[in-house]
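In this supplementary section we document a worked example of the pipeline. Step one takes a protein sequence of length 511 as its only input; no multiple sequence alignment statistics are reported here. Step two produces a three-dimensional model, which step three serialises into C-alpha cells for compact storage. The input and output of this example are shown verbatim.
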Amino acid sequence: MNLASRLSGVAKRSGDKPSIVFENHAYSFQDVDRHVEHFTALLARLNVKIGDRVAIQLTKRMEFIFLELAVLSLGAIVIPLNPDYRPQEVEYFLTDSGASLYVTDRERLARVQPHVGQLDGLRTILVDSAEGAGTLSLSSELETTPRQFTRTYPTAEDDVAVICYTSGTTGRPKGAMITHRNLIANMTALHQIWEWSDRDVLLHVLPLFHVHGLFVALHGGLNAGATMIMHEKFDPFRIWQTLDLEQCTILMGVPTMYQRLLNQWEQMERKPDLKTMRVFISGSGPLLETQFNRFEQATGFRILERYGMTEAGMITSNTIDSAGRTPKSVGYPLPGVEIRVVSDQGHDVAPGEVGEVWTRGDSIFPGYWGMPEKTRDSFCDGWFKTGDLGYQDHEDRGRLYLVGRAKELIITGGYNVYPKEVENVLESLDTIKEAAVIGLPDEDFGERVTAVVVPKEGTAAPSPEMIIGHCKGSLAGYKCPKSVFLVDQLPRNAMGKLLKGALVDRFTGAS
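The serialised model returned by step three reads:
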C-alpha cells in the first residue's frame, strides 16, 4: 500500500509505451520509472528517511513528478507548494511542517531567502543551479548519484504520504495529512467509475501542486497506463488544437478553464475534430448550469462534474454515461464512499432537505498536521464534516446537489480562498480600520475575491490600487482582491455579527 510502488508496477508492465509527453518531449513508462529510481537514490544519499517532510515549490515540470514519486518511495512526506506563494506563506509552511528539504528554483529562492534562510535543519535544492552557500544543485547531485537503487517502499498503508495545506478559517492554514491508503483508494475508485484504460490519452493542463492536477489527473493517468499529453501552461486555443491532433480521450479542468475554452471555441472558424474524445471532466469549483448547457450545445459533449476536496479526495461523481449527467448535480458517491446530509443538530435531514454534507470512507484523511483540536472538530463518529451544504434527490438514487457552503470559503478559478486570511493582511494596513472579504459572482472565475474596506478615521483613505498592491506583497495572486470598495461602515445585526450576505447583495453587479 505505497502509492509509488503501485505506480512503479504499472510502469514496469507498460514498458516503452508513451507515458508523458511534456511540451513535445516524450517519456515512456520505463523512462519515468528509471528517473524516479534515480531521484530516489539521490534523496536516500541526502539521508531523506521515512516520515521526513520534503517541500516542493516548482512550476509545472518533469522534475516535480520524479521528485514526488521518489519522496513517496522512501516513505517520506511530500508538501506540494503553489509556486506563486509569497515569502511569508512559504516560511509558515516550511516551519509548521518541520520540512527538512526544500526543492525550488533560483527565482523563488531569491524571494524567500530572507524568510527561510535561517530555518534550522532545512536544506535547499535548486532545480536550475546552486545559488550561493547552503544550496545544492539538483543536476550536480544527480550526476554523482548512482542511477540504480533498490526501492523498498518502507510504509504502512496509513502512513502519511502528502501534506496539502488548505487556507484556514482563522487565517492559519491547515495541513491536511493524506495517507497512502487515501490516495490509492480514491485512485482505484476513479479508475473504476470513469472506466480508465491504457488506451486513454489524457490532455493534462492542470497545475501539479494542486490535488486536481496531482492526485486525480497525474496519478490517475499513471495508474491506468494511459498516455498523458502535458502542457506547462493553460492556453485555450492550443488545447483545442491538441485534443484534435493528438486524438485525446480525456480532458480535466476547472470551470474557469471551460469558460475560456467556450470563449475560444466561439472565435474559431474551423472547429476541432473531437471524434476520439471520451469525456470532459470538471471540478475544484461549481460548474454553472449555463456553462454546462453552452458547452453541450457547442461541442455535443456533456461535461462530467464531480465533487471533492483536499481532505476527502473525490467524494461524488456524475456517471460516465453522459445520459446520467445533470446540470447543477455532482452525482453519486464513489465506490467505497458514503455520504449523509445532516442538520445543525447532527441528525439526517428528510429527503430533499438541505443540510451539511458528511462523508466517510478509505479516501478520507485522518486529520490536520499538528492540529488535534481542529481534527476533532472536523469529525463526528467517524464522519468528516465537509462544510458544504446540499441535498439528495431520493427519487434519483440519492443524487447529490450542492447549494452553498457552511464555511466562508471562496472558490475562484478552482482555488480555495478563506476570507479571514485575506482580511488579516488587509487589516495590517495602518489606514484600514476593518475589512470584509467576500466572493462575488464572476463568469470567468466563478467567484471574484472582493474586499470591502472601512478606512481608519483621521487618515487618508487608501486607494484600491494601493490595497491590492499591499495584498500582493503577502499573498498568492489568486487570494488577492480583484475589486475593492470603500465604505463608512460594515453592516451588522443587533448582536454585532457581520452580515456578509448584505455585502454580496449590495455589490453584486458593481464594477
